[in-house]
Amino acid sequence: DAGVIQSPRHEVTEMGQEVTLRCKPISGHNSLFWYRQTMMRGLELLIYFNNNVPIDDSGMPEDRFSAKMPNASFSTLKIQPSEPRDSAVYFCASSRTNTGELFFGEGSRLTVL
Amino acid sequence: GESVGLHLPTLSVQEGDNSIINCAYSNSASDYFIWYKQESGKGPQFIIDIRSNMDKRQGQRVTVLLNKTVKHLSLQIAATQPGDSAVYFCAENKNTGNQFYFGTGTSLTVIP
Fold first, then answer.
1. Which residue of A73, A100, B10, B51 is surrounded by the most CB atoms within 10 Å?
2. In order along chain B (112 residues), what is the average pLDDT of each group of 10 residues?
3. In this structure, what are the phi and psi dihedrals at residue B86, rounded to the nearest 5 degrees?
4. How far A96 CA lies from chain B's nearest CA (Å)?
């Protein structure tokens, strides 16, 4: 079975540009999570969806960040405009609602110059 | 605010020895904990979990111990192998949904 699929794996962009990260969760998983990982702050939960509905977005840093889940098999995390401090690895993870175990994608490494 | 933290950022062990990785949590309402392993360039992978109604759980070469009195969690790896070299995270679920909050991680290096 395919795991969580993220794209792009690497992105380098300039400050002010729009960045869109994409995620396809594991089929049948009802919950989807976006995390950001940096050396200084570790893994931070940005937003969590359950059955395509955003449940908790308290971790989203600011209005420049937005996330959508238009259907059960696709989610996006958008940063507009991007800033150098947004440079990090962004992980998407999915789980069956009641089991807790998160299955992570390989991550999208973002560098904002 | 409340946080999940790790005592040691790095740990080096000799191949074949046992490893112990520690984690402190501060939210007494947390009822479910998971240990994850993250290899370089990859996403975290599930190792073992434990619920708050247990104090010990064993898997293959790994054991998780939970001490709710002092809010402490540990991961024990028996007969550590070079393939165990990775960053290990503990994560807690605060019983308010399906969200997990991760500690900062401990980097384990196994010396052949």
1. A100
2. 52 96 87 93 94 94 95 96 95 77 90 93
3. 180, 180
4. 9
